[in-house]
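Why do we care about 3D structure at all? Because function follows from shape, and shape follows, mostly, from sequence. That is the central idea of this module. The next example makes it concrete: a single protein chain, its amino acid sequence, and then its structure expressed as tokens.
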Amino acid sequence: MSNTAENLSEQAEAFQKIWTESFTKMIQAASVFTPNSAPPELLREIRSGILNALAKSWDEFLRSPQFQESMKEWMDRAIAFRKTTQDIMTRARKEMQAPSSSDIDAIMLSVRHMETRILNRLEALEQQFKAAGNGSGRSTAKKKNATSARRPSSRRASSRKSSRNK
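And the structure:
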């Protein structure tokens, strides 16, 4: 516990040191001017000095080992929190006998594989149909039309009625 408190106090001191240095740099930049310069030019110099001092101080702060270590700890805790919540949600789904996200993902993957296989088979059938040629395709269509024309009309009517009832 005391080790953590010492670590926090060291980090606070480093943070305070960075900000005091940046503040002194801003004051120095604001106080450096020539008496012969016009007031708008003086304001530009002050603004430029302040922005440069802030940029340097933020760069030092963001690159400091203390900041990087605290960000690493924060990210590790965020990842651990996400894993914990996922585990809790998975257990809750199991208790409710609901499908888990991994089950749904597996089903979606299976459906995609089936879709791909069906599309590949349809393309293969299309290629076979094109390879067979248009002449043989027309004769088959003519034969089908001729056989349907020979059917008795009462048979067609009864098949229509049965398909409507379904």
